[in-house]
Design brief:
Number of domains: 3
CATH superfamily of the largest domain: Ribonuclease Z/Hydroxyacylglutathione hydrolase-like
Distance between the termini: 18 Å
Strand content: 25-35%
CATH architecture of the largest domain: 4-Layer Sandwich
CATH class of the largest domain: Alpha Beta
Largest sheet: 8 strands, mixed
CATH topology of the largest domain: Metallo-beta-lactamase, Chain A
Strand order of the largest sheet: 1-2-3-4-5-6-7-8
Shape: globular
Helix content: 25-40%
Radius of gyration: 22 Å
Number of strands: 18
């Protein structure tokens, strides 16, 4: 499962960090100002998933860059069409005459998703920070590594915003207590063939034994994946609701904007944000197992006001208030 931590206080801009056990890197969803984000957090960040580049979601990008300049690796940044130029503009706002490109310098690969689902890639490096077109990403996932993969949906907020679904990679385990063969290196080969559905592949178990993958499947058990979603800044419309419910179906953990109280519904509609009851009902339709309402309007500056919004949310969601 994902280890999640809000790096922003309730009165600050939104910034969510997540990682996985025994994994060196961290990942960020949005980079608004967040006082709990440390230098080590910035250096360990391997990808930044940007919902959109309104100031409260992107203002701290340069603060992160400040601590990544000499990490010697490529960091992924994802977002909507235009985020590559937003990243470039941030970087070009400084003078880099003392910084050269070498093996110790950071570089950024920016991935933009358009309304057709096409993911275009750009590379940007020191010291000129020129955008280099890397072409289309040949994948349905905007990001994927050996531990998790990321799908997304575009929502309407007056501009397009990205909702993200993070899912751990599928794993399988062997039920050796029922297996007539001794454990060996063949198990890893079997697991790989099973996950790629190569049922006819022959697995050499020992010098005298060969079995097809299809013959060994009774001894394999799929392990459940874990899903976490991050859904920020969306108008309270049925079109957005349908996309969120589809993306977040049966999600284990959902971080969802709860910008306005339902009493301020008119303001929510005007500013193309969601409100407590709409967000709660959407999460319930998605059958989310756990929901963390976040990202409240600054008009609710008192703790009691935020608590009323949370009470309203869980009154409509109906389950497991944190």
């Amino acid at each position: 499962m994902f280890i999640t931590e809000l790096k922003s206080l309730p009165t600050e801009d939104i910034c969510l960090q997540f990682g996985l056990a025994n994994h060196s890197f961290k990942y960020l969803c949005d980079c608004g100002f967040a006082s709990q984000l440390t230098v080590a957090d910035c250096r360990d960040t391997n990808a930044i998933f940007v919902s959109h580049t309104h100031i409260d979601h992107f203002i701290n990008f340069n603060g992160i860059v400040r601590h990544q300049l000499a990490i010697g690796r490529r960091v992924i940044v994802t977002g909507t069409v235009g985020v590559a130029k937003n990243v470039q503009a941030q970087l070009l706002s400084f003078n880099w005459n003392l910084l050269k490109y070498d093996d110790q310098a950071v570089s950024y690969e920016i991935r933009e998703i358009d309304e057709a689902g096409k993911i275009n890639r750009f590379l940007i490096e020191t010291p000129k920070w020129e955008l280099q077109d890397l072409g289309e990403l040949p994948s349905a996932y905007i990001y994927e590594n050996e531990l998790f993969k990321v799908r997304c949906a575009l929502l309407d907020h007056g501009i397009k915003t990205v909702a993200y679904l993070f899912e751990t990679q599928e794993k399988v385990s062997m039920q050796m207590e029922n297996c007539p063969h001794k454990a060996g290196r063949w198990i890893n080969e079997l697991k790989t063939a099973f996950l790629t559905q190569d049922w006819g592949k022959e697995i050499v178990i020992d010098a005298n034994t060969t079995r097809k993958v299809s013959e060994l499947t009774p001894f394999i058990q799929r392990e459940p994946t874990y899903k976490m979603a991050y859904v920020m800044d969306f108008a309270a419309t049925e079109a957005n609701r349908e996309k969120i419910v589809e993306l977040c179906a049966d999600v284990d953990e959902l971080f969802m904007e709860c910008y306005y109280s339902s009493e301020d519904m008119e303001m929510a509609v005007k500013n193309k944000h969601s409100y407590a009851s709409f967000s709660a009902q959407t999460a319930k339709l998605a059958r989310a197992k756990r929901v963390i309402p976040v990202h409240f309007s600054r008009r609710y500056h008192e703790e009691a006001q935020k608590q009323l919004i949370l009470n309203e949310f869980f009154a409509h969601f109906g389950e497991n208030q944190p």
